[in-house]
Design a protein that fits this description.
16 strands; about 5% helix; 4-stranded mixed sheet; 8-stranded antiparallel barrel; about 190 residues; single chain; 2 helices; mainly beta
């Protein structure tokens, strides 16, 4: 399928209270917007066509929404503190915690802080609940620190589209539920 047949504007249909759309160009670039409640997101990048599958490559680097500003060994357990210019944004962060193969999801408090008292933790990833994308690793198995202060990167508003492929069928783009659109029947119709 040639990119000229794919090129055009596509708008999301059927999802209540959400507006979203794509512009796909004949040159293989795309722009994306998304408005859901108080959250606005966007992306731009390139796309490729493989049969009926459309693969997007955003300019955003996945897994880099949080930057570690301070880390050290302090006390017992593990502490994560999210520091943001807008304190409201700091309270919507979840931690995905791995102890060996066991996975748990923990949430920061209204101050953007989380303390875990249990034993050794192998890995910790963070993901923003209002601006979800591929989770950012802040603690690896080789990192012995147990105190982490993290900031929010400006990339938070963008979408990486990593792992999200679209299928084109009769001028309609569809995809499976994913990290930023966890809905059934996601359909973008060409206009």
């Amino acid at each position: 399928m040639a990119q000229t047949k794919v090129a055009g504007e596509y708008r999301l249909t059927g999802i209540h209270d959400m507006a979203a759309g794509f512009t796909l160009t004949e040159q293989g670039t795309f722009e994306f917007f998304y408005v859901y409640g108080a959250v606005d997101r966007f992306a731009q990048g390139t796309y490729t066509v493989d049969g009926k599958t459309i693969k997007l490559k955003s300019s955003k680097e996945a897994g880099k929404d949080f930057n570690i500003t301070k880390q050290s060994k302090i006390g017992k357990g593990y502490t994560i503190k999210v520091v943001a210019p807008n304190p409201m944004l700091a309270q919507y962060v979840k931690a995905i915690v791995f102890r060996g193969q066991e996975k748990s999801v923990e949430f920061v408090n209204k101050k953007g802080e989380l303390h875990l008292n249990d034993g050794y933790i192998d890995r910790i990833y963070l993901q923003h609940e209002l601006f979800p994308d591929i989770a950012s690793e802040i603690k690896s198995e080789t990192n012995d620190n147990n105190y982490f202060e993290v900031g929010l990167n400006p990339s938070l508003e963008k979408v990486s589209f990593k792992g999200v492929d679209f299928t084109l069928d009769n001028d309609t783009l569809t995809c499976l539920p994913n990290y930023f659109m966890p809905f059934e029947n996601i359909r973008f119709v060409k206009h």
